[in-house]
Amino acid sequence: MFQKILIANRGEIALRVIRACRELGIKSVAVYSEADADSMHVALADEAYCVGSARSADSYLKIDQIIAAAEVADVDAIHPGYGFLAENAHFNEVCRASGFEFIGPSPSAMEKLGDKNTARSMAIASEVPVVPGSDGLIESDEIATSVAKEIGYPVLIKATAGGGGKGMRVAPDEETLLTALSQARTEAEAAFGNGGVYLEKYVGNPRHIEVQVIADHHGNVCHLFERDCSVQRRHQKLIEEAPSPNLPEDQRVAICDAAVRMIRGAAYTNSGTVKFIVDENNDFYFIEVNARIQVEHPVSEMVSGVDLIKSQILVAAGEPLSFKQEDLVCTGHAIECRINAEDPSKGFRPNPGMIKKFFAPGGIGVRFDSHVYGGYSVPPYYDSMIAKLIVYRPTREEAISTMRRALKEMQVEGIETTAAFHDMVLQHKDFIEGQHDTKWVERELMD
Ligand code: MV4
Questions:
Q1: What are the pLDDT digits (tens) for 413-444?
Q2: Residue 165 C-alpha to ligand 1 middle, in angstroms?
Q3: Which residues are catalytic?
Q4: Residue 128 contacts by C-beta under 8 Å, 6 or more apart in sequence?
Q5: Which of 158, 438, 442 to mutate to test the pocket of ligand 1 (most atoms within 8 A of CB)?
Q6: 154 and 35 in one domain?
Q7: Alpha-carbon span 142 to 304, nearest angstrom
């Protein structure tokens, strides 16, 4: 079992891992930038090392600095959190080569599934439904034209090294296909150093449903049911919930089984999320795998009763999962609102600064995962999320009511946040009826 773990991250996820370490009797080591000297993960960890200056590139992304801290602190393992280096297969490799266990999948599983075209091929090999599309990367304009004609317009051109909405272009018809294709390649080459693209038929107004999976090194693969992440804006998730409203039970079983097949087929270990899009007929299609723990993991923890971060740590230490699939039942309903230091009245523009007064919501069914406090200055250098407000109640209706109560109760003075925006969504008829899709926010709420 590990004696000491370094968390190569900051903010609420660093706190989340520190808490799991504390409960497992494992020492925690924080790394921080000069701008984060006063942050809570530094205060709560057993040890803390400054790894560089404010900009992420000079600190949280500095692999040599993080490895140096791990060596000085003499840790057994490194947890990457999400974002930063979490899906960087090279960092994964360097950790292991330096003698530290990486709390996540193997570098090869991360690399294979991180390549979206390879992941798509693996889905097909595991008989997981994919959107009709090209058989591999598009090698010529002629192939693009013939594949697009076959699957029918509009088609979506996707960068194989992209993800989360980056490197995608819609081609509505043949006239625009070749231009969109060359633009997508150029963009992907510039953004990811890999211009490889593939085609899929465009599924209009899909819901985004993803399945949380955890696999150990003893052949046990469990899903922790699905999450619905359809409330998003420009590929930024805002509200996530579990289970998904209005997903028929047979589809729920099928999508979770497909996710387990995918993870097993990829020889993937530790925590992973298999992402699908679901069309109006409730047909689901594999989109991609996230080879990391995700922001929204708490809603899956609440409905399954599993502590995912502890499970990650135990799996990385070689332990078998402490539960079987048949032990897990999806109970109740969980909703998470991402509280960002952004001003919705100004296009969700980041709004960093000093939090003069802060009161965290509480009461029955409320979980508040946050690193902020009264007197804390939200720095401008990093992601704008300052808290995750999660509620967990027996029914979706009660969860919505508790979330609205908790949002009103939360007090943050000195910066603008997305709290009021969430309250508006939660009382909207479409959301209450579960009739929203991934385009709903931009279509219905944004002027
Ligand atoms: C799609 C799609 C429609 N048709 N693929 C967005 C980012 C990445 N997760 C894949 N995404 C999509 N792939 C086909 N063939 C629509 C999206 C999409 C989307 C998917 C999930 C959640 C939010 C989204 C927002 C816009 C587009």
A1: 999 999 999 999 999 999 999 999 888 888 88
A2: 6
A3: 292
A4: 258, 259, 261, 262, 274, 286
A5: 438
A6: no
A7: 49
Question: Is residue 65 one of the residues assigned to a domain?
Answer: yes
How many other CB atoms are there within 10 angstroms of residue 434's CB atom?
A: 15
Residue type at 177? L
Residue 189 structural domain: 132-201
Query: Quick one: which atom of ligand 1 is closest to the CA of 200?
Result: 15
- Same domain flag for 155 and 229: no
Describe the crossing of helices 107-114 and 116-125 by its angle, rounded to 10 degrees. 100
pLDDT of residue 446: 80
From residue 266, give the alpha-carbon distance in Å to each of 67, 123, 124, 128, 338: 28, 9, 12, 12, 31
- On whether both 274 and 194 belong to a single domain, the answer is no
Q: Ligand 1: which of 235, 281, 288 to mutate, judged by most atoms within 8 Å of the beta carbon? A: 235
Please report whether residue 422 resides in a domain: yes
Shared domain for 279 and 418, answered yes or no, is yes
pLDDT tens for 336-352 read 999 999 999 999 999 99
Q: Which of 134, 147, 160, 168 to mutate to test the pocket of ligand 1 (most atoms within 8 A of CB)?
A: 168
Nearest protein Cα to ligand 1, atom 12: 165
**pLDDT for residue 447:** 65
Widest CA span of the chain, in angstroms? 62
On whether residue 331 sits in a domain, the answer given is yes
Check: CB of residue 386 under 8 Å from CB of residue 329.
no
Cβ 159 under 6 angstroms from ligand 1: no
Which pairing describes strands 27-33 and 4-7: parallel, antiparallel, or unpaired? Answer: parallel
The structure tokens listed for 67 are: 């490895």
Q: Find the 77 Cα to ligand 1 centroid distance in Å.
A: 34
- Count of the separate structural domains present in the chain: 3
Q: Compute the mean pLDDT over every residue in the chain, rounded to the nearest whole number.
A: 97
What distance in Å separates the CA atoms of residue 28 and residue 332, rounded to the nearest whole number? Answer: 32
Q: Give the CATH number for residue 35.
A: 3.40.50.20
**Same domain assignment for residues 270 and 409:** yes
Encode 6-27: b = buried (16+ Cβ within 10 Å), e = exposed.
bbbbbbbbbbbbbbbbeebebb
Q: What is the DSSP letter of 441?
A: I
The ligand 1 atom at the shortest distance from the C-alpha of residue 165 is 7
Q: Is 277 in the pocket of ligand 1 (CB under 6 A)?
A: yes
pTM of the model: 0.97
- Same domain membership, residue 189 and residue 137: yes
pLDDT of 229-269, one tens digit each?
999 998 899 999 999 998 999 999 999 999 999 999 999 99
